[in-house]
Predict the 3D structure of the following.
Amino acid sequence: MSVRVALHSPTGSRSFLERGLLLLVMLIFLEGTVLTLGAASSPDISAQDNTGGGHDRRDDHRGIAGSHEHTNYTYTKKAFPVLSLDYHHIQVPFEISLWVLLASLMKLGFHLIPRLSSIVPESCLLIVVGLLVGGLIKLAGEEVPPVLDSNLFFLCLLPPIILDAGYFLPIRPFMENIGTILMFAVVGTLWNAFFVGGLLYAVCQIEGTYLSQVELLPCLLFGSIISAVDPVAVLAVFEEIHINELLHILVFGESLLNDAVTVVLYHLFEEYSGAGEVTPMDVVLGVICFLIVSLGGIAVGAIYGILAAFTSRFTSHTRVIEPLFVFVYSYMAYLSAEMFHLSGIMALIACGAVMRPYVEANISHKSHTTVKYFLKMWSSVSETLIFIFLGVATVAGPHAWNWTFVSVTVILCLVSRVIGVVGLTFIINKFRIVKLTTKDQFIVAYGGLRGAIAFSLGYLLDKDLFPMRTMFLTAIITEIFFTVFVQGMTIKPLVDLLAVKKKQEAKRSINEEIHTQFLDHLLTGIEDICGHYGHHHWKDKLNRFNKKYIKKCLIAGERYKEPQLIAFYHKMEFKQAIELVESGGGVKLPSAMPSQVSMQNIQPKKLPPAVAERALPQFTKGREEEIRKILRSNLQKTRQRLRSYNRHTLVADPFEDGWNDFLLKKQRMIELEKKMTEMSNYLTVPAAPPDSPTMCRARLASDPNAFYNIKASSEGVPTIQVDLASPQSPDSVNMLNEFSKRGATDQGLGQREGATRDEDQGLMMKPSSAGKVEKGEEDGGNKNPGLMRCLSDPGPSNEDEEDEPFLP
Amino acid sequence: MLVDSNLNIILVNSNLGLWQKAVNISHDNVVVTNIFSCHVFFCSRQDLASISALDNNPLRAQIINAFFDKRNLRQNEAGTVQVIGFEEFLMVMSHFRPAAMHITEEEREKLRREKLRFVFNMHDTDSDGTITLEEYRRAVEELLSKAGTIGQETAKAIADAAMLEVASTTRGKMEPDEFYEGITFENFLQILKTFDIETRMHIRFLNMDTATMRCGK
């Protein structure tokens, strides 16, 4: 709704581009109309009217309107209008779509041009595009629409970017550096505002600048607008330079948290500019107001965040709308905060950060992906639009260029930023464990980009109260252009030049995660021992409270019990499994590890020495591998099943729904593997006997009759004798049976079942049926029937038989 | 526990009772420089175990063991002691001191090794210089011991996965019949290369209060 309202005014006049597009579309349509009508051989006026409109687009609307009325009142005379045109009807959404399309195409285009995006930051290019579009509109003789309207900006364009930032805020580094960030955000911004505002006023008083009519309060107001680092600009530039986590969170955190200061200063000065006098009481009120704005914003955000988490607890049956809750609750948080003039940005950040851990545990993996993609998509489109609009607004706006004012603004901004950062770092470094080096300070100071928030705030100023509004806007735009173009373009080479530590791309390893957790508990323990209630103590308390009460309320099912380490492990395992399946494999065991090394290598050798000595290769290594491979691929196949389509649920994700299933199966697979390893240790039969000892023994173990018979003729069959001598053979036989049966059920393969059936038949064969056995296998024709029976089925080709069940 | 900017421990106000001392922890050894008033202090396992705040800590046993481990007491021998005095206590605590203000790369590396050695010793329960799979599993199980049954079930898998990771990063490809005995300290350093322990493993004792110091006199 707000989109409509906000966009209505800027779209009062159509842009050149749209007109061109519109004309094209219209001509195509009209041609179609004429043709149809011609075919129906009923020439009528309205069609001609329309064609006329098509030729002269200025008369377009009138023509259509006319034809409309015409058909409405005298439609008995006229044929039914097969096609009519009503652009006004769709104007607003159509033009919004056009802008979004333009933004997206531009973004697309930049990344198609090789090397361009590595030299110039995207934000600069987008501003240039905005300038060009604005110029084109102006060339077409149209009035440039005031696209960067404050309402549009604050209600539509800004929230997605901030929500994206808040939702994916790296909480740990943020909280670890919260002191430094707050220092920069609050004290730094205050310093900047007063330094710039005050000195600017002093400069204005100098004779000959023709600026003596500028008063102190408007100067301070201007200072407070221009001093805030802009999250949109910072994100756009810092995302491309891949700076290390610490610097990124410092600059970015500052840009987020200084919103409260800016909001308060803005409202204070705006208020006092009307009133004139400032008393000490007002200053106190200002401080209180700051606390209310910031803490209130956080509180509003947190409340909505908890509500969102609580709602997501119950969405397990309507997975499709899950992502919506994340967006709607956050937007409501932002609007509610704005309603009271609290810091909407802080509310959004708080909301996103609070809801994320709980929502993520509740919603399905697919919904999580959806949330992620939607946030990224919206924020990147918003960002693109903001920069383009900034360019358009530059062309559009009335400008009052004053060399002194503009250049002094740019210089003062730089100077105050440098002084502020260096001074504050000096203080902060006294308390920090990781000191900020000179390089770090330079990047923090240089990364202080200004952006569209400043412009929108300037745009909001009342023309009557601030006669200098136009000059302010011009100065703001210049400062934005300076920071975005000069600083934004040079920061990347500078980072390379100074060899500032870059972000480590390596993914987090499980060992690091274990030790992170380990260290947390260790430090808490040490603090407890020396009776010092420090950070870790309170963090631990909070964690325990969170686990005990909050998680229980907000997370559905059993997952709230899951400690972080286990969650991390599962996530990792899941990712690996997906990668595995995507790579089309099934060859590797989906363990959570790169499987260059198998579990076998690190498994402690448990074999008693006597057995180890006798360990003769039952399966050769290669065959064992082969068998495992086949086992795995078959196990994976079973979890892919089809589901019927439902409008309210997406087609079931085999990985997601079958996840538990999959875990179970994996478990079973590991067990199987282990069993196989054990087996190869136990089954210590002389290498490659002519017939299958295992099968023989299987029969022996289950057929007492055969056992007896063998005993009778033991001298003739040496292999069997060996088996009997082995005390472990019954054990191993049972194991093999169990193993092969399990395998059969797991795989459910035809051959497999067939093989098992064969085996069963073999076991149940009566002496009378021995004659059916193929002659080829009866090499020892003089053996008694019992022995024949037990040798008959496996036969000399037993090796193959044994393999067969495993073949797909 | 109070530490001033030169890393002097000035006062220890512990759950174990009140001890007051001024100790200068230099980089290598603990030197008692000045004693304000020193209660005779000996501490046994039972004393540490009686601290109620530790009850909820999954690493309780390991932490207590660390205080009585000779390796952490800068004696180059394995084994445990039964009772520790104040100096020994501080020696263990000195592993948790923050890095000094200006520190060279060399010192940083040394500090890093020292801190990692402490953690390594906690895992290496039989002090043979390697963390075997068994030991690692036990460590992870302990870590997850407050997580109920899910923890115990997963702990083994996690330890196995972690061990596999160590083996594959330190050894590269292994033949099926090769055997990875366990994590040596060098391996341990290697896998936690990106883990900035020198900045993480510290306790902030910042409430320096000279008034208390004078009272102790």
